[in-house]
Amino acid sequence: MEILAFGVQADEKPLIEKAFEGHHPVRCRCLDVFLTEDTAPIAAGHEIVSTSVNADLGGAVLESLAAGGTRMIAQRSTGFNNIDLRVAERLGLTIARVSYYSPYSVAEFAWTLAMAVNRRIVRAGNRTRDFDFRLDGLMGRDLRGRTVGVLGTGKIGEAFTRIAHGFGMRLLGWDVAENPACVELGMKYVAKDELFAEADLISLHVPLLPATQHIIGADALRLMKDDAILVNSSRGGLVDTDALVRELRAGRFAGVGLDVYEAEAGLFFLDKSLEAVADDTLARLVTFPNVVVTSHQAYYTVDAVTQIVGTTVQNVLDYRAGRRSENVLVPAAPTP
């Protein structure tokens, strides 16, 4: 049986191929193209398809996959806001995800973004490449003693909080339920508005759901300190980017670090350097000297990707054996 994996990065390919070794007759063919309505017909004849986080798994794509004989989709990510689960269920498709991988990969990268914008690392690096060694405009701030606000204190938020505790910061948190480990570190859970108003650094670690769509919108941004730092390494849709650009144009915020963008599908993971920029919001966003945008790479460590690939293989094996795990979002349709 050949599994077709869409959207495989060059660094991922050997890890995926190695992970499937020894599971004969299952083998995996890796494609660098992403799953879209245009590329879905490639999967015809493949019972199992594996997809990346930026795959289009809306109704039209799912219909095309099902028509071509696909019965199972193994997504190589935790998030699944790109999947129309209702259509998948109607079509009798099994949908599985990776419910857990190294939280440290994302938490550490969120701190990388925070420190990069706080200490102007990108600007400094660009200058020294031109042998410009001035310090003008590079002044940052000590984080010790300042307040960090963590939205979402699950596994990743907890890992982020532990690092903040190491910096000696005051800890504020918001979530639907308190994490005892964060409370033990000294975190005080507060209302969102209080967190926005008091935090010097705000980091987002909540999933993208209808209730969290644009959780950082115009009202939230206005509550934040003018010299606050905002970091998003979770999902792009958590931030109203147009509202953020308006505040940046007004000269607000010491720094903004974004590893995700709400319109990243069709952009991130691809080389668009030789094309005209069609996204005016993103084009404007990357021009601000206090903003760093990266292309959804927070999870991209050998440790995390190895776990993601390993779980994906197990999801495939479970499907073939008729087993169901916590990773299954939509189970297989019952056999008549």
UniProtKB/TrEMBL annotation:
Keywords carried by this UniProt record: NAD, Oxidoreductase
Top-level lineage group: Bacteria
UniProt keyword Nuclease present: no
Segments crossing the lipid bilayer: none
Ranges of residues in domain D-isomer specific 2-hydroxyacid dehydrogenase NAD-binding: 112-298
InterPro entries for this protein: D-isomer_2_OHA_DH_cat_dom, D-isomer_DH_CS, D-isomer_DH_CS1, D-isomer_DH_NAD-bd, D-LDH-like, NAD(P)-bd_dom_sf
Example of a GO MF term: D-lactate dehydrogenase (NAD+) activity
EC number annotated for this UniProt entry: 1.1.1.28
Residues of the D-isomer specific 2-hydroxyacid dehydrogenase catalytic domain: 8-329
Pfam family, one: 2-Hacid_dh_C
Coiled coil ranges: none
Family the entry assigns: Belongs to the D-isomer specific 2-hydroxyacid dehydrogenase family.
Protein name according to UniProt: 2-hydroxyacid dehydrogenase
